[in-house]
Specification:
The protein is an all-alpha fold. It has helices at about 5-25, 25-40, 45-55, 55-60, 60-70, 75-95, 100-125.
Length: about 130
C-alpha cells in the first residue's frame, strides 16, 4: 500500500466515521462509493472491503463469502476500521451540538448526491 492510498483510506475512514456518528450512515453510503470512485476498486471489492472493516457490528458470514470470492482488501479494511472509530466519535459529538433539522438536511442532501452519482455511473456502464 503506497502513502497516497494510505492517506486516502485514512480520510475515507474518518469521514465515514464522522458521518456515522453524525447521521447514522457510513459503510454503504460513504465507504463503498469512496473506494469505487476514489481508489478504483470494483463494486464487489468495495463492498467486501467495507464489510470486512465492520466485521464485529455486521457479522462474519457475509465477510467470509466475499473473502472466499477474493473480493476483500484486508489492509484497506483495517485502516478504515481504525479511522472510522475516531470519526464516529467526532461525528456524534458534532451532531449532538446542533439542531436535529440541520442533521436531517445534511443526511438528505448526501443521500441525493450519492443516489445521483450511482444512477449516472450505472447508466453510463449500461450504455457502454
Amino acid at each position: 500500500m503506497d502513502m497516497n492510498t494510505l492517506i486516502l483510506l485514512l480520510c475515507i475512514g474518518l469521514i465515514a466515521g464522522i458521518a456515522s456518528g453524525f447521521v447514522g450512515i457510513g459503510g454503504g453510503m460513504i465507504i463503498v462509493p469512496a473506494l469505487v470512485f476514489g481508489l478504483g476498486l470494483s463494486q464487489h471489492m468495495a463492498q467486501g472491503t467495507s464489510l470486512a472493516m465492520m466485521i464485529p457490528p455486521i457479522g462474519i458470514l457475509a465477510v467470509m463469502s466475499y473473502y472466499r470470492a477474493g473480493q476483500i482488501q484486508l489492509e484497506y479494511a483495517a485502516v478504515l476500521a481504525v479511522t472510522f472509530v475516531l470519526g464516529a466519535w467526532l461525528g456524534s459529538k458534532w451532531a449532538l451540538k446542533i439542531n436535529p433539522a440541520v442533521v436531517r438536511l445534511v443526511f438528505g442532501t448526501f443521500m441525493l448526491f450519492a443516489a445521483g452519482r450511482l444512477i449516472v455511473r450505472a447508466w453510463h456502464d449500461l450504455s457502454s
